[in-house]
Write a structure and sequence with these properties.
This protein is an alpha+beta fold and about 140 residues long. It has 3 helices and 8 strands; from the N terminus they run H-E-E-E-E-H-E-E-H-E-E. About 20% of the residues lie in helices and about 45% in strands.
Length: about 140
């Protein structure tokens, strides 16, 4: 998995966008395009910024099951990670991934009540590349 982890990590790090999946109140999957995660720790943990008032935050609070997907269109490769999503609103988490210019999205700054952090923790994944798919677990 070490080489695969490096290969998948490289794919993730080169993407400007990602997709996050949630489950709605009727049990249906919902997908949304997002900017790339602000921070990642291996293939296990990813941090995204979003609006506290968003539909996705409401869904994750009710049902934390989630997935994230990264796609490299140039080589038709991708990776899906399955796990859980937490909504973090504590000061330390918000400051950890805050960037200059974020006031464009959160006008009141890092303390904006409509700014929160999504923390995704992966359990498993599935990658596709070179005409084959591979399932893997994440420790």
């Amino acid at each position: 998995m070490r080489n695969a982890e490096q290969t998948i990590g490289n794919l993730i790090d080169k993407q400007k966008f990602s997709f996050i999946g949630s489950v709605d109140e009727d049990g249906y999957p919902n997908m949304k395009a997002m900017l790339a995660p602000r921070k990642r720790e291996g293939l296990k943990t990813f941090f995204f910024t979003t609006n506290t008032s968003s539909m996705r935050v409401s869904q994750y609070r009710k049902e934390p099951k989630a997935c994230i997907y990264f796609y490299d269109g140039r080589f038709f490769r991708g990776v899906m990670l399955k796990g859980t999503m937490e909504v973090l609103e504590d000061k330390a988490s918000k400051e950890m991934i805050w960037r200059e210019g974020d006031t464009m999205y959160y006008s009141k700054g890092v303390t904006d009540p409509d700014y929160c952090v999504l923390k995704f923790t992966a359990d498993s994944g599935r990658s596709y590349g070179n005409f084959r798919s591979e399932d893997f677990t994440i420790e």
